[in-house]
Design goal:
single chain, alpha/beta, Aspartate Aminotransferase, domain 1, Aspartate Aminotransferase, domain 2, 15 helices, binds pyridoxal-5'-phosphate
């Protein structure tokens, strides 16, 4: 079969049988999709042999590039021993080794690892853990949660209950448990009508009011540290995260840090919490955990919380939760290999210079007519497009400006995906300065040509 007919066959099969995530399938059926068949470094190759820069790390997961030798080898070696055995009643070397390494590098006190296989489940585990913890401490009434406007913690119903994105979450509201929402630290469009830094972090005062009112019935607060990702790459001002940690402690509620997106170097440190010297009570990890190779997630917690679940079997203090592929051996082997590469290649140290370079490049994009705000924390970037730069008036939703910019970029060899009218850049940590340069050059051109 030649390449064109092979492509045609895949397109037909896809159209007839697939249902893509977060996708209006009516529009999908009208377009010809890019079919990815290979990857190398920060590039992806399509079925026709065209190469693209992977500008969002294959949806925020890839860390050291595609086909990274060390990770490829680790997976192959593991396949030759065993790919999966259960953690229900059995142990395994990769799961134990990885747990110990995570405990050694996570923020202080997080010494226990509960595995699952995606970000949403890592969050479900955190919520249920916090809830059951208080029950077993005799504080039955502490069953509610506090979360942020614009929060995204995944798509399962528990995670949606603590979500704050109307477009995704509103329709499911009858299915959800109650959560108390505090303002999003979204300085460009402050919901409290304030200006940073003159506001003195007024959003923290508002948060305190709400937390104080509900403290007795609240089990935990959940937050994406430093950057609210899917909500639009909303970067919190300095001191906000530390302020939230202080409030949780003051009012006796647990703090859950959802580092599913920010973890594993994404913001320039291994975990975003480190940047404000914050240690949460519970930490959620996923996306970059296996280097972007295989589904793998973890919920980490302290010995204090862990111990509240200890007891004789008949006391029923067991944490009755688990997923079939929990602690999958292949995925854990990939995770271990990824951490080895972090150490061997000094990935984080090398990032520092590249983050500064990216910042300088982005300053140019910030000057464009229809760019309202550019937000960057390490390799997490959001470029908010507006109809009117002065008044900050957004584009009408049916203009689909974010989508048009990304389509334009695709024609120029760059794959990126917008969040509404926020263009997201999230390259693999291994990207070179020259590759960063093409990432920003093409993005700038695509914005100019689409909005100009
Ligand atoms: C992506 C994401 C999730 C959900 O992870 P899945 O693996 O898609 O279920 C949860 N929290 C944050 C902060 C995320 O970015």
């Amino acid at each position: 079969m030649n390449i064109r007919s092979r492509k045609k066959r895949i397109v037909t099969l896809d159209r007839n049988h697939l249902w893509h995530p977060f996708t209006q399938m009516q529009e999908w059926a009208e377009e010809t999709p890019v079919i990815i068949t290979e990857g190398r470094g920060v590039f992806l190759k399509d079925i026709l042999g065209r190469w693209y820069l992977d500008g969002v790390s294959s949806l925020w997961v890839n860390v050291h590039g595609h086909r990274k030798q060390e990770i490829d080898d680790a997976i192959k070696e593991q396949v030759d021993r065993i790919s999966h055995s259960t953690l229900l009643g059995l142990a395994s070397p990769p799961a134990a080794e990885l747990a110990a390494q995570l405990a050694g590098m996570a923020p202080a006190g997080l010494s226990r690892v509960f595995y699952s296989d995606n970000g949403s489940t890592a969050v479900e585990v955190a919520l249920k853990m916090a809830f059951q913890y208080w029950k077993q401490r005799g504080q039955e009434q502490k069953s509610a949660f506090v979360c942020l406007h614009n929060a995204y913690h995944g798509d399962t119903l528990g995670a949606v209950s603590v979500g704050g994105i109307d477009l995704f979450h509103r329709i499911f509201s009858p299915l959800l448990f109650r959560a108390h929402r505090i303002p999003s630290p979204y300085c460009y469009r402050c919901e409290l009508g304030k200006r940073h830094p003159a506001c003195g972090l007024f959003c923290l005062q508002k948060a305190e009011e709400i937390i104080r009112r509900h403290k007795d019935e609240t089990a935990a607060l959940i937050i994406e540290p430093l950057v609210q990702g899917a909500g639009g790459m909303i970067a919190a001002p300095a001191g906000y995260l530390k302020g939230i940690r202080r409030l949780c402690r003051k009012y006796g509620i647990l703090m859950i840090a959802d580092e599913v997106a920010t973890g594993f170097g994404r913001t320039g440190t291994m975990f975003a919490c480190e940047q404000e010297q914050v240690a949460p009570d519970i930490l959620c990890l996923a996306k970059g955990m296996s280097g972007g190779y295989l589904p793998l997630a973890a919920t980490m917690t302290t010995e204090k919380i862990y111990r509240a679940f200890l007891g004789k079997y008949h006391e029923c203090k067991t944490f009755f939760h688990g997923h079939t592929y929990t602690g999958n051996q292949l995925a854990c082997a990939a995770g271990l290999a990824s951490l080895r590469v972090f150490r061997k290649e000094r990935t984080l140290q090398k990032m520092a210079k590249k983050i500064l370079f990216l910042g300088k490049e982005l300053a140019r994009i910030a000057g464009l007519d229809h760019v309202g705000d550019v937000r960057q924390r390490g390799f997490m970037v959001g470029i908010e497009l507006v109809k009117d730069k002065k008044t900050r008036e957004p584009w009408p939703i049916d203009e689909k400006v974010g989508w048009k910019v990304c389509a334009r970029a695709r024609d120029k060899g760059l794959l990126i995906r917008p969040l509404g009218d926020v263009v997201v850049l999230m390259p693999p940590l291994s990207i070179s300065t020259a590759e960063l340069k093409s990432l920003t050059r093409i993005t700038g051109e695509a914005i100019r040509e689409t909005t100009g």
